[in-house]
Amino acid sequence: MSEQFLIEQLKEGISPFHSVAFAERKLKDAGFLSLSYDQPWKLEKGKKYVMNHHGTALFAFTVGEKFSSDGMLRLAAAHTDYPYLRIKPNADFQTEGYAQVNVEVYGGPVLNTWFDRPLGVAGRVVLRSGDVFHPRTVLYQSKRPVLIIPNLAIHMNRDVNKGVEIHNQVDLMPIADMLSEEQKDTEYFLNFLADELQVDKKDILDFELNTYCVEEPAFVGVQETMLSSPRLDNQTSVAALLISIMEAERRDGVNLIALFDHEEIGNTSKQGAASILLHDMVKRIYGLLDCSMEETERALYSAMLLSVDVAHALHPNHKEKMDITNHPVLGKGFCIKEACSQSYATDAEAVAIVCQICEEHNIAYQRFVNRSDVRGGGTLGAVASTLIPVKTVDIGIPLLAMHSARELMGRNDFGALVDLVTHFFTL
To answer: In the predicted model, is pLDDT for residue 420 greater than 80?
Structure first.
């Protein structure tokens, strides 16, 4: 079930909006009741709840049948976004009969991997409505490749294999089509979008659209021990949290998952991990379960958070890039990530808890630490734990080609991650 769910998540998670829509649908099918932050809540013991926040963030929690404020609050968080090219407003321009689309870079993609790939378009479009404060919002997915960024031929770029700088405003502009003479003065992409949505072009007020790699996941290797796919970072973690919150059962406490947006650009938004939403949500949940302020504070400060995001695996052609004693490889389990800089929010007590869960249930895990002379990446854990200062550990499956248009993982590692989070939510 886990592997099938992951493949479905990877195919569906083509934008943060689509990732959240898929997650919300799966949770509702599993009996989670829908909440909205601007509506009254009525919470009951033994029930499960889900909330979609601004379309790209999602929160789901379960309340045990025997809930008490002394039952440990257990949290897990991941992010729904990934590095891509985002389409700008007034996107249309044309060059010598080529219809092109103006884009900007979101996050930190490996840019050269986006060349020569069939690209789709996905996200949300906001339309005119009768109520100015409630415009109509629709999800959009092209479901087929409509853009491509061709490489410059080696005959015109002789140094391409030596490493050539990519100029974002020049080299990354996709081609949408070839224009006829009659079409040269038209808004070709906007017309296409209006036709796709079957709306008047004038009713399209704005959009949040990104390019996505239309290629599907594929098992690779002689024995198919690896999975190559777009968006492994971080749909693997999203899928693991969804499976775990649906499968785990606790009678005495609250389990909560938070799927944040905007991790790839620093977490600072109303739907990012740097918002106060998670802290406020915990207070609201416990207050509506008849807990006093003191009981709520006690529960909050005795909680634990899993920050779930991918890790770097050792690259066989570049062993020198990894730490000399902490270098995970594909297929040997998920990673516990540590950094004394606190770019990973892990501390020894939280690590010990995860290690004991893994050892008790035979779950494979590895350790990741950056080389001492290399500045690594960060996760939402360090940000979220400043607002909810609880025991936190950063974990995730190891990848090769992280932030490429296609990334690579070990086939068995996802199951280990699901097992860990499920037991964390069950014990």
So the answer is: yes
How far apart, in whole angstroms, are the C-alpha atoms of residue 288 and residue 349?
31
| Residue-wise pLDDT tens digits, 25-52 | 999 999 999 999 889 999 999 999 999 9
84: β partners? 106
pTM exceeds 0.90 for this model = yes
Tens digits of residue pLDDT in 173-191: 999 999 988 777 779 999 9
**Backbone φ, ψ for residue 118 (5° rounding):** -65, 125
What's the CA gap between 139 and 418, in Å, rounded? 29
Which residue matches tokens 């060059």?
A: 95
Note whether 368 and 338 are within 8 A (CB): yes
pLDDT tens per residue, range 372-416? 888 777 888 888 888 888 999 999 999 999 999 999 999 999 999
What mean pLDDT is predicted for residues 256-270? Answer: 94
Listed residue (238, 285, 251, 235) closest to 61, CA to CA:
285
Q: In what order do the strands lie in the sheet with 407-410?
A: 218-220, 226-229, 407-410, 398-400, 311-312
- Contact between residue 50 and residue 24 where contact means Cβ atoms under 8 Å apart: yes
Contacts of 410 (CB under 8 A, 6+ apart): 225, 226, 227, 313, 329, 330, 331, 332, 397, 398
User: How many angstroms separate the CA atoms of 29 and 270, rounded?
Assistant: 27
Q: Burial level of 125, CB count in 10 A (0-12/13-18/19+)?
A: buried
Give the DSSP letter string of 119-185.
EEEEEEEEE--SSTTS-EEEEEE-SS--BB-PPPPGGG-TTGGG-----HHHHT--EEEEPPGGGTT
H helix count then E strand count, the chain: 10, 20
Q: What are phi and psi of 132, to 5 degrees?
A: -60, -30
Q: Which tokens sit at 121?
A: 């378009």
What's the rounded Cα separation, in Å, for the pair 80 and 14? 10
- Note whether 409 and 236 are within 8 A (CB): yes
Cβ-proximal residues to 294 (8 Å cutoff; 6+ apart), any chain: none
Q: What is the DSSP string of 85-104?
A: EEEEEEEEEEETTEEEEEEE
- In whole angstroms, give the CA distance from residue 34 to residue 255: 16
Give the confidence band of 1 by pLDDT, cuts at 50, 70, 90. low
pLDDT digits (tens, 9 = 90+) for 47-79: 999 999 999 999 999 999 999 999 999 999 999
